[in-house]
């Protein structure tokens, strides 16, 4: 799920809660294991990434800073409060991805090679917010990034996935280091999940590129609305 569209946390995180792991350690353990899967899937997308350095570098920096801030915020605050906000964030991101193509005509060059400085600054600011969210919880972060790419002019779903993998790997990577330093990882469960995430991460990303783009986009949208319903029921029941 993470390699194709994002949303793997909505399987792995509840699974950890079901085994009795507390919410914050469960989130930290989930971040570590799925970070490995996301990083591995990057190998299958290595030929799809074609983003100018002047655009990629600011996105990487804001991903690093935001991921660190979000991880620290998770360690210091209760997760339950943020869980009530998550369905609204996922719902908005899914809507943006669904209708993002209708916005591209109103946004100058998007994040193409001719992107204006204003477009790059706007994308970097949005990525900072996404990264803070990702460091704190991370569920649906892939869809939020895909939504931003769609609104900023990207149309190739596989190129979008390639950039998503790079940014999400940066966010989850710095969050993982923070969680390890804080002693928040449940290592026995993490090791089992890492194996599964690594195997699924590469194989899914490889075969996803052979699917029609319309089918992959439909999967992203369906997954986004499904996650929205799930977290509304979980947060407000």
Give an account of the 3D structure:
The chain is mainly α and 237 residues long. It has one domain. The protein is built from ten helices and no strands. The protein has helices at residues 9-18, 23-41, 53-76, 79-83, 86-99, 117-136, 141-151, 157-181, 187-208, 213-236. Helix 5 (86-99) runs parallel beside helix 7, helix 6 packs across helix 8 (157-181) and helix 7 (141-151) packs across helix 8.
Termini, distance in Å? 26 Å
Globular, elongated, flat, extended or rod-shaped: what is the shape? globular
Alpha carbon gyration radius: 17 Å
Mean pLDDT: 80
What's the number of structural domains? Answer: 1
Q: Quick one: how many beta strands?
A: 0
For the sheet with most strands, the description reads:
none
Helix content: over 70%
Structural class: mainly alpha
Q: Which SSEs are present, and which pair or pack?
A:
Elements: H1 9-18, H2 23-41, H3 53-76, H4 79-83, H5 86-99, H6 117-136, H7 141-151, H8 157-181, H9 187-208, H10 213-236
Helix pairs in contact: 1-2, 2-8, 2-9, 3-6, 3-8, 5-7, 5-10, 6-7, 6-8, 7-8
Brief account:
This protein is an all-alpha fold. The chain has helices at 9-18, 23-41, 53-76, 79-83, 86-99, 117-136, 141-151, 157-181, 187-208, 213-236.
Question: What attributes characterize this protein structure?
Answer:
mainly alpha, 237 residues, 73% helix
């Amino acid at each position: 799920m993470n390699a194709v569209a994002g949303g793997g946390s909505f399987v792995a995180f509840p699974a950890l809660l079901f085994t009795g792991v507390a919410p914050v350690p469960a989130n930290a353990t989930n971040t570590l294991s799925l970070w490995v899967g996301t990083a591995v899937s990057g190998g299958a997308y290595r030929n799809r990434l074609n983003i100018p350095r002047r655009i990629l570098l600011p996105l990487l920096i804001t991903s690093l800073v935001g991921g660190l801030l979000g991880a620290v915020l998770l360690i210091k605050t209760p997760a339950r409060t943020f869980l009530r906000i998550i369905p609204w964030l996922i719902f908005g991101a899914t809507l943006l991805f669904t209708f993002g193509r209708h916005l591209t005509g109103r946004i100058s060059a998007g994040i193409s090679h001719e992107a204006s400085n204003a477009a790059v600054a706007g994308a970097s600011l949005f990525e900072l917010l996404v990264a803070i969210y990702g460091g704190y919880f991370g569920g649906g972060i892939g869809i939020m990034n895909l939504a931003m790419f769609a609104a900023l002019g990207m149309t190739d779903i596989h190129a979008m996935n390639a950039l998503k993998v790079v940014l999400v790997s940066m966010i989850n990577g710095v969050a993982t280091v923070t969680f390890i330093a804080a002693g928040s990882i449940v290592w026995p469960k993490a090791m089992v999940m890492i194996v599964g995430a690594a195997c699924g991460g590469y194989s899914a990303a490889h075969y996803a590129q052979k699917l029609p783009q319309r089918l992959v986009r439909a999967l992203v949208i369906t997954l986004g609305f499904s996650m929205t319903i799930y977290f509304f029921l979980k947060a407000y029941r």
